[in-house]
Amino acid sequence: MVRAADALVKAMESKGVDVIFGIPGGSILPLYDAFYDSNIRTILMRHEQQAAHAAEGYARVKGRPGVAVATSGPGATNLVTGIVNAMMDSQPVIAITGQVPREVLGTDAFQETDITGILLPVTKYAVTVKEPSKLAQTFIDSYYIATAGRPGPVLIDIPRDVLQADVEPQWKDEPSLIKYALGSVTEQTQEPNPELISKAADILINAEKPVIIAGGGVIISNATEELVRLAEYLMAPVVVTTPGLGSIPSDHPLMLGVIGMHGRIEANLAVIESDTILAVGMRFADRSVGRFDEFQKGRKVIHVDIDASELGKNVTPTISIAGDAKKVLSELYACIISRTARKEARPFVQRLKAIGESFDEFMNNYGEPTRITSWRALKVIREELPRNAIVTTGVGQHQMWVQLCFKVFEPRTLLTSCGLGTMGFGLPAAVGAKAAAPDRTVACIDGDGSFFMTCQSLVPVVQYDIPVICIIFDNRALGMIRQLQDFFYQKRYKDEHLGLSRKHVEKGIDYVKLAESMGVEGAVAESLDDLRMLVRRAVRSEQALVIDLPIDREERVLPMVPPGRWLNQMMTPMGFDIHARIRV
């Protein structure tokens, strides 16, 4: 006989768990005591939300569940934002929380919270384990649920006395919940319908302007090779959603970039001009396609997703195919090559790429040559980071600039909060990413507003020797809020200022001293040359570094499609006449 907590740790080890992110507390202490005798590495974060983000960063890099641990009450509730973020972006995170002993459940005991009830709507599975003998098996089941079909987070809530109870250390290394309550695992992993594959193949073969939209599901399914192979055979351009960045290398001739509200001009134009869309592993979010009604006009839509509930939810496709992206793309390719020869280059692709190149040239030369702009800074950072570096971002203008001009060459190398748009995601996600891939360079590109929300994550960077490079785009403002107030609220700026004084807008937080107070070296980049030197030094030294990069607070991230508008209503920078360059 062993404690249930020890059996749980053994079950975790059996599934390859090598690190957890969390904060101990009274109700979860028996589990931490069990970790004492385990090779599982425990990383003490400084807030439970950051533990959830770190677990997600780990999961995104590894492609398997990350684990976040918290105590009962406020520890558990602090996880909520991070868990919802993982749910929105389909990432496998296992949250383990302590709970008050069974005998006082329902009495409003100290730090008692119905965390299972709170998280049930935003997880794939949430359970309070009341039988000690089932605890280890519950972890095995939860691991399976988190990764089966469309991945997502799960919650295991454990009363303290359950953790302390004696049990036989036994479990089956397969899920016991075959008919799992939400009923979607079997449905999500169904085989693609051959008749629908055949019809979709015929549509793609006969299309004059086919466009492939690759979403995050392509990366999750490890279907990047299948995507590129199909695109090259059809000579169809590929555009991506933000989660899909990395599904095809940014320098591939058929890659046109990210679509949507802050999408690349040529990518949005490709969607507008298309007569056929093959959308794979994406959910047709409003930020990606704008108006659903306009998206459906004048084109055939083939929608592929592992989650059948996404098919027809926002857009009514011509053909809906439920299935794993890797398998569907492979079968589509096999069907197409059996019916037609490889397609020739399509003139509209080269025309659109030329528009994109002209925009790049315009932005490269925008303003004074030595002026620090987000665009130029990201070009410098990309040049200095290794091709396989892992980059995380927060949420805000800097995130939109990254998706516009920062080249992503490999899957699982750009980690950013997409569906929920969680400010503060970047730094703790970088901690998790570096824990998952200690031999690779990890950089967090953040805004000052986003960075400050979770800057405590610098402490575990030092404490556990997890060196990440953090580059703060510092405009002393909530830049995206200021931009929206500028464009849509008549410049009636309110509570967007992050500096220390309204009278002296350049006076802001000293991020160098802040970093140094937590044991991390800090430096200010006064020029693009400074930035290049600092990033290069950090990459070579493999030491943590915080770089404060001053950015003009009046900088606006463009192109931008106003909320609720169709993609053809892109706002572009002054001086770049989009109408003189397009035919729609």
Verbal overview:
- The protein is of the alpha/beta class and 584 residues long.
- The chain folds into three domains: 2-172, Thiamin diphosphate (ThDP)-binding fold, Pyr/PP domains (Rossmann fold), CATH 3.40.50; 192-350, Rossmann fold; 374-554, 3-Layer(aba) Sandwich (Rossmann fold), CATH 3.40.50.970.
- It is built from 25 helices and 20 strands.
- The strands form four sheets. The chain has a six-stranded parallel sheet. The protein has a six-stranded parallel sheet with strand order 11-10-9-12-13-14, sandwiched between helices. It has a six-stranded parallel sheet with strand order 16-15-17-18-20-19, with helices on both faces.
- Strand 2, helix 2 and strand 3 (41-44) form a beta-alpha-beta unit.
- Helix 1 (4-14) packs parallel to helix 7, helix 13 (265-273) runs antiparallel to helix 17 (347-364) and helix 18 packs parallel to helix 25 (528-541).
- The N and C termini lie far apart (72 Å).
- The relative contact order is 0.10.
Any idea what the CATH superfamily of the largest domain is called? Answer: Thiamin diphosphate (ThDP)-binding fold, Pyr/PP domains
Strand content range? 15-25%
Give the overall form: globular
Give the count of helical stretches.
Answer: 25
**Which structural class is indicated by helix and strand composition?**
alpha/beta
CATH domain class of the largest domain:
Alpha Beta
Instruction: Profile the largest sheet.
Output: 6 strands, parallel
| Uncertain stretches | 181-188
CATH architecture of the largest domain: 3-Layer(aba) Sandwich
How many separate structural domains?
Answer: 3
Mean model confidence by pLDDT: 94
Number of strands: 20
Termini separation (Å)?
72 Å
